[in-house]
Amino acid sequence: MRLPYDIVCIDIETTDTNSNLGDIIQLGAVLVNTEFKIIDSFNIYIKPLTSHRNKKAMEINGISEEILSTAYSLENALSLFENFCGKTRMLAAWGNYFDIDFLKAAYTKIRRDWTFGYKSIDLKSIAIWEFAKHDLPVVGGVTKCCERLAIPFEGHAHDGLADIKNTIRILQKLLSYDYSPHKKGWNV
User: Fold this and answer.
1) Into how many domains does the chain fold?
2) What range does the domain containing 124 cover?
3) Residue 65 belongs to a domain
4) Residue 168 belongs to a domain with what CATH number?
């Protein structure tokens, strides 16, 4: 599988799973080319707009109040993110129904125009399709999928940048399978 053009793949960490209550506190991103090779990466911590904290969400992401106290404002973080994206306007995420929708909600909260397209790519759907082609069930999120493919998880789980980089590693492995009779197997 080849992408038609470069895309920006994101993973966010939040103060809640509900975008009406929670705020984005970390945005990790990678720019990938048409063959899912990482060209560049981006990582930023963001000061939450509100004092709301879902205890479970904060335990999972492990981002401390100390880190958040010195983080970028949402306005500045989004400017830096848009600069990182450059002309690339297609976003993707593992479960874009969460990450992309939450990012759109953040833009709305500060009355900032959404500068990206309204179409996005769900990387989890690509992974599910590829796992199915190998008759392998998808078992959980990024960490479990790494385990399933015997890919050591690099970094810390629930860190935005580590999660998206490992997502790309999963897709690279799944997409590297050679189906030709004389080479059948993984090319990674």
Assistant:
1) 1
2) 7-186
3) yes
4) 3.30.420.10
d(CA 18, CA 52): 11
Strands in 7-14's sheet, in edge-to-edge order, are: 38-45, 24-32, 7-14, 91-93, 120-122
In the chain, the DSSP E strands lie at 7-14, 24-32, 38-45, 91-93, 120-122, 177-178, 185-186
Residue 38 lies in a domain: yes
Mean pLDDT (whole number) for 137-161 = 93
Whether residue 2 is contained in a domain is answered as no
Nearby residues of 26 by Cβ (< 8 Å), 6 or more positions away: 12, 13, 43, 44, 45, 46, 61, 63, 159, 160
Q: Give the helix ranges, DSSP H, for 26-95.
A: 55-61, 65-69, 74-85
Do residues 43 and 65 lie in contact, with contact meaning Cβ atoms separated by under 8 Å? no
Interval 48-55 mean pLDDT? 97
Please check whether residue 130 is in contact with residue 186, taking contact to mean a CB–CB distance below 8 angstroms. no
A 10 A CB-CB count for 169 gives 21
Phi-psi region of 17 (alpha: psi -120 to 50; beta: other; left: phi over 0): alpha
pLDDT at 188 exceeding the cut of 60: no
Is 1 inside any structural domain? no
2 or 7, higher pLDDT: 7
